[in-house]
Design a protein that fits this description.
Elements lengths: L17 H10 L4 H18 L1 H11 L10 H26 L3 H4 L8 H22 L1
Helix pairs in contact: 1-2, 1-6, 2-3, 4-6
Length: about 140
Protein backbone atom coordinates (compact mmCIF):
# COMPACT_ATOMS: atom_id res chain seq x y z
CA UNK A 1 0.00 0.00 0.00
CA UNK A 2 1.36 3.40 -0.97
CA UNK A 3 1.04 6.38 1.30
CA UNK A 4 0.44 9.69 -0.31
CA UNK A 5 2.19 12.49 1.42
CA UNK A 6 0.62 15.88 1.33
CA UNK A 7 3.14 18.62 1.00
CA UNK A 8 1.94 22.07 1.83
CA UNK A 9 3.44 24.69 -0.38
CA UNK A 10 5.89 26.62 1.73
CA UNK A 11 6.17 30.31 1.14
CA UNK A 12 9.37 31.67 -0.23
CA UNK A 13 11.22 34.73 1.05
CA UNK A 14 9.95 36.89 -1.81
CA UNK A 15 6.39 36.38 -0.61
CA UNK A 16 6.99 38.10 2.75
CA UNK A 17 5.61 41.63 2.76
CA UNK A 18 5.81 44.51 5.22
CA UNK A 19 2.02 44.30 5.51
CA UNK A 20 2.23 40.63 6.56
CA UNK A 21 4.95 41.43 9.08
CA UNK A 22 2.85 44.26 10.51
CA UNK A 23 -0.24 42.06 10.76
CA UNK A 24 1.71 39.33 12.52
CA UNK A 25 3.36 41.77 14.94
CA UNK A 26 -0.08 43.10 15.82
CA UNK A 27 -1.39 39.56 16.33
CA UNK A 28 1.57 38.84 18.62
CA UNK A 29 0.78 42.03 20.55
CA UNK A 30 4.02 43.85 19.91
CA UNK A 31 4.13 47.36 21.35
CA UNK A 32 2.35 49.62 18.83
CA UNK A 33 5.09 52.26 18.78
CA UNK A 34 7.77 49.60 18.40
CA UNK A 35 5.87 48.22 15.40
CA UNK A 36 5.90 51.69 13.83
CA UNK A 37 9.62 52.07 14.50
CA UNK A 38 10.61 48.72 13.05
CA UNK A 39 8.30 49.07 10.03
CA UNK A 40 9.98 52.40 9.28
CA UNK A 41 13.33 50.58 9.29
CA UNK A 42 11.95 47.83 7.02
CA UNK A 43 10.54 50.39 4.57
CA UNK A 44 13.84 52.30 4.49
CA UNK A 45 15.66 49.04 3.80
CA UNK A 46 13.26 48.29 0.92
CA UNK A 47 13.72 51.79 -0.53
CA UNK A 48 17.50 51.49 -0.32
CA UNK A 49 17.97 47.87 -1.43
CA UNK A 50 14.68 46.84 -3.08
CA UNK A 51 11.99 44.31 -2.19
CA UNK A 52 13.97 41.31 -3.36
CA UNK A 53 16.99 42.18 -1.22
CA UNK A 54 14.71 42.88 1.74
CA UNK A 55 13.05 39.50 1.33
CA UNK A 56 16.39 37.70 1.24
CA UNK A 57 17.61 39.68 4.24
CA UNK A 58 14.56 39.04 6.43
CA UNK A 59 14.52 35.38 5.39
CA UNK A 60 18.19 34.97 6.36
CA UNK A 61 17.94 36.97 9.59
CA UNK A 62 17.23 33.74 11.48
CA UNK A 63 17.73 34.55 15.17
CA UNK A 64 20.18 37.36 14.55
CA UNK A 65 19.73 40.99 15.50
CA UNK A 66 19.02 43.30 12.56
CA UNK A 67 22.00 45.57 11.89
CA UNK A 68 19.95 48.63 12.84
CA UNK A 69 19.74 47.34 16.44
CA UNK A 70 23.24 45.93 16.90
CA UNK A 71 24.66 49.15 18.29
CA UNK A 72 24.63 48.99 22.09
CA UNK A 73 23.42 52.57 22.59
CA UNK A 74 20.57 52.10 20.10
CA UNK A 75 19.55 48.89 21.86
CA UNK A 76 19.62 50.63 25.25
CA UNK A 77 17.46 53.41 23.82
CA UNK A 78 14.99 50.84 22.45
CA UNK A 79 14.91 49.15 25.84
CA UNK A 80 14.24 52.43 27.64
CA UNK A 81 11.41 53.34 25.24
CA UNK A 82 9.69 49.94 25.32
CA UNK A 83 10.87 48.47 28.63
CA UNK A 84 7.43 47.35 29.83
CA UNK A 85 6.75 45.36 26.67
CA UNK A 86 10.32 44.06 26.43
CA UNK A 87 10.40 42.87 30.06
CA UNK A 88 7.12 41.01 29.49
CA UNK A 89 8.60 39.34 26.42
CA UNK A 90 11.79 38.43 28.29
CA UNK A 91 9.69 36.64 30.92
CA UNK A 92 7.72 34.84 28.20
CA UNK A 93 10.94 33.76 26.47
CA UNK A 94 12.35 32.46 29.73
CA UNK A 95 9.19 30.41 30.24
CA UNK A 96 9.10 29.18 26.63
CA UNK A 97 12.75 28.17 26.49
CA UNK A 98 13.18 27.19 30.14
CA UNK A 99 16.38 29.26 30.14
CA UNK A 100 17.19 32.55 31.82
CA UNK A 101 17.64 35.58 29.61
CA UNK A 102 21.30 35.65 30.69
CA UNK A 103 21.87 32.20 29.21
CA UNK A 104 19.93 33.10 26.06
CA UNK A 105 22.17 36.14 25.58
CA UNK A 106 25.55 34.64 26.42
CA UNK A 107 26.73 35.72 22.97
CA UNK A 108 25.92 39.31 23.98
CA UNK A 109 27.49 39.33 27.45
CA UNK A 110 29.81 42.22 26.60
CA UNK A 111 26.76 44.48 26.26
CA UNK A 112 24.76 46.34 28.88
CA UNK A 113 21.88 44.25 30.27
CA UNK A 114 19.29 46.59 28.75
CA UNK A 115 20.84 46.14 25.32
CA UNK A 116 21.03 42.37 25.81
CA UNK A 117 17.34 42.14 26.69
CA UNK A 118 16.28 44.36 23.78
CA UNK A 119 18.37 42.39 21.30
CA UNK A 120 17.13 39.06 22.67
CA UNK A 121 13.49 39.98 22.19
CA UNK A 122 14.02 41.58 18.78
CA UNK A 123 15.97 38.69 17.30
CA UNK A 124 13.79 35.97 18.76
CA UNK A 125 10.38 37.46 18.06
CA UNK A 126 11.21 38.68 14.54
CA UNK A 127 12.59 35.27 13.64
CA UNK A 128 9.46 33.56 14.96
CA UNK A 129 7.27 35.85 12.88
CA UNK A 130 9.25 35.17 9.71
CA UNK A 131 9.14 31.42 10.35
CA UNK A 132 5.36 31.61 10.89
CA UNK A 133 4.91 33.53 7.66
CA UNK A 134 6.91 30.94 5.74
CA UNK A 135 4.64 28.07 6.82
Amino acid sequence: MFKKELHLKKKHWDEITVEQLERKMNEEKFDKEFIEEILKIFKERIEKHGKEAFGKWIYNLHFRVPEEFQNEQISISVYEKYHKWLEGEVIKLENETKMSWEIQTEDLQDLDNKARKAQLVIRHRLSEIVLDLLE
